[in-house]
Amino acid sequence: MCLWVITQGTTATHAQSPLPTAVGQQAVTDAAAQQEREKQRQLSVQPRKEEAEAVQASQVSEDLGSLQILREKPELPFFRLRSDQSYNWLSNANYAKSSANVVAAWQTISSLESAWAPTFSTMPEYEKFFPEAGVRASFFNYFQQEELSQNNNSSGLYDIGLVQDFVLVNLFLRGTKQVTDELSVGLSFDANGYFYLNSPDERAAADQVNQPTNFLNEYAFAYTANYFHPLTDRQAISLGWRASYVFATPSYFSRTDNSLTGTYFVNLSDQISLTPFASYRLAYYTEGGEYWQDTGLPTSYPNGFYRRLDQQYTLGLGLNFQLSPELSTGLNFNYSKSDSTSRIAETGDFVNLTAGANWSMTYKFSEKEFVVTTPSDCLGPYVRTDLGFGMVNNLSSSQSLSGSVLPGVTGTLSNPSLSINPGVRFDVAPGYNFNDWLGAEFSAGILYNGLDHLNGNGSITMDASSTVADVGGGGISLSGRYLQVPALVSAVFRWPGKGRWKPYLSTGFGLAYSQLQITQVGSYQTSDQMAQQFSPAFSVGSGFLWQISDMADFDLVYKLLGLVNPGYSNFHPGVPISNSFQFGINVRF
To answer: Can you tell me the distance from the alpha carbon of 129 to that of 112, in angstroms, rounded to the nearest whole number?
Structure first.
């Protein structure tokens, strides 16, 4: 997740180098643990559920007398929106052992989360399976820094507000199975993306010129087990275990991360609860080969991750106020101590005291918004609209080009490759369902992506100037756009049955218009020329619909789009492939 910045020099100068961004990893770990404890607390304050009604009665026509028909009462899905914020004072904001780097500061974490948690009452054996998918964006800000214990901050080297502010974007998929009334187990996948909140110029002002523009992104696979046991109407205990495997991109390190947390819940009143807890975390880091290749340093150089073992103990107390079913606030006090085999001064061995306040607001769109009296057969015409993210694989070729290499670019270039930034995709698809499992649709959409980099070997000249740029090694940066407009006819195969949850597959063929425009190469402007092409195209997709009314469904889908042999000037990248993840709504008529 976070990159330990290596500076050339001796150990003595190393201590005065910019602080590592690795503190972000510990900050996120602490925040995630707090979120998990909050989930357990909400469970403890919920009133005990009465035995759910298995059936509901519906009165029939008067000529049949007082006869009533009993039918299964449907389970309802919900969509969750959550906003929360915490304000913390940290006695050791850098999680450092060295007194030169121990800084006390205030931290605020502001988060927005949206998640979807459907039910599976229509599928036997899945009544107690609870999946959810969602996205959470958290903004970590540091401010009101206290001075270091040593007088070595005159140049602002440790201005943590400039060094450590960052954004975390968390995409998660989770599935929990309730084994008994008190025990549940689950599997989860989390993709974490990290980005600075400040610009390179702002970091350079605090002498942070060696800081990376991004953290290392992380991907975590985890198994969880939670035991929750009510002691009385107002007291309960919880024991939670989480075992995960985490790897980072680039592969500078991977780790196994395990934690065990015990919590005691005391509801002092209907609105006030007290939650003392204790937790133990054990994390083992391994170093990835790409680290040494990128830095050129000997493998004996300490990077803070090589075969590193961390043990962290945390004791804490929370006082929470449930102001309404949707809104809560609270105070928290935590003491953490970490012991590590790491050979660096920061983020391994540390002691930290945290005191703070928090609030959260959660709203669930359920029952009234999602009630469906009877699932329909979903036959007849429909229109679906989807919006989401689109990622294009590198446009690569084994050609040796000369003359017009790319739009607005001439020269000689062998093995050209264009890397594309993530973008957006929007689709509109009218269709018709012939029966319970088969439909056909015509879909038209647009994918917009920005250009990132040009790789290959050779030299190029921009049409708008006589500047010659060499391409090789790390390549050269690009600005511009890559546009795709597909028009496809597809067959759609749906899971049969009258359940609200309907997985489906689709495959289609048609044409696509594409356009490649380069506006800048490196620091040099081009003539803004573009190349455009009509090409055969194909698509495959997989997703599911969730019926929310007699006329509308939610839609979550993955789509793969391929263009067959388009050409842009003399550049022919074969079959460009785009991967899209979209969310939308399907309206039936």
So the answer is: 25
Residues 229-263: tens digit of each pLDDT:
999 888 999 999 999 998 877 666 788 999 999 99
| The pLDDT of residue 144 is above 80 | no
Distance CA 310, CA 312 (A): 6
Backbone φ and ψ for 123, nearest 5 degrees, come out as -115, 115
Do 193 and 83 lie in one domain? The reply is yes
* String of DSSP letters for 35-99: HHHHHHHHHHHSPPPPPPPSEEEEE--GGGTT-EEEEEPPP--EEEEEEEEEEEEES-TT-BSSG
Asked whether residue 129 carries a pLDDT value surpassing 90, the answer given is: no
Q: What is the pLDDT of residues 538-559, one digit of tens each?
A: 999 999 888 777 778 888 899 9
Q: Is the same domain home to 313 and 169?
A: yes
Burial of 409 (0-12, 13-18, 19+ CB in 10 A): buried
CA pair distance 29, 18, nearest whole angstrom: 22
Residues in the chain: 589
Q: Do 358 and 423 fall within a single domain? A: no
Question: Does residue 314 contact residue 33 with C-beta atoms inside 8 Å?
Answer: yes
Q: Is the pLDDT of residue 60 over 50?
A: no
CB 246 within 8 A of CB 222: no
Is the same domain home to 327 and 410? no
Q: Give the CATH number, domain containing residue 277.
A: 2.40.160.40
**Is 50 domain-assigned?**
no
The CATH number given to whatever domain includes residue 536 is: 2.40.160.20
Which residues, including other chains, have CB under 8 Å from residue 488's CB and lie 6 or more apart?
442, 443, 444, 508, 509, 510, 537, 538, 539
Pair 350, 387 in one domain: no
Q: Model confidence over 386-444: pLDDT tens digits?
A: 988 899 998 988 888 888 888 888 888 888 889 898 889 999 999 999 988 899 999 99
- Please compute the mean of the pLDDT values over residues 561-589 and round it to a whole number: 90
State pTM to two decimals.
Answer: 0.59
Range of the domain at 133: 21-44+70-369
Say whether both 361 and 387 belong to one domain: no
**Mean predicted lDDT score pLDDT of the chain:** 78
Are 394 and 256 in the same domain?
no
In a domain, 63, yes or no: no
Say yes or no: 380 and 348 in one domain: no
Would you state the structure tokens that stand for residue 559, as one six-digit string? Answer: 């789509």
